[in-house]
Amino acid sequence: MVSYKSSANHQQKNKSMKIKYEMTDLYQGESNYNWVKRGEIILEKEISKDALIRLVKKELNISSCGCRKNNFGSMIALYPKDSATVVFINTEY
Fold first, then answer.
1. Alpha-carbon torsion 58, 62, 65, 70, what sign?
2. Which residue, among 33, 26, 80, has the nearest Cα to 53 in the 3D structure?
3. Cβ pair 75, 36 in contact under 8 A
4. Tally of domains in the chain
5. Per-residue pLDDT tens over the stretch 52-73
6. Which of 38, 66, 82, 92 minimizes the number of CB atoms within 10 Å of its CB?
7. 0.85 exceeded by the pTM?
8. Which helix (H) or strand (E) holds 59?
9. What are phi and psi of 62, to 5 degrees?
């Protein structure tokens, strides 16, 4: 589990944010869970969705990889290009 103090320059709300993420393999385009890498990040303040994605990609060492993004409200799915993997990001406030 990693805790960060947010230092974004945009206006932020005063509520904490918990980010849970998992990265797993794909089989025929579906999440397979043959292997999985999970993590959790707790922030003192809320951050934007784009900043959240950058933070999770940094934790998974895929910052330089472009991703297709599907946003489902409180859950985001990232599909790194040229990789048979998916990253699921869930947020709790």
1. negative
2. 80
3. no
4. 1
5. 999 999 999 999 999 999 999 8
6. 82
7. no
8. helix 49-59
9. -125, 30
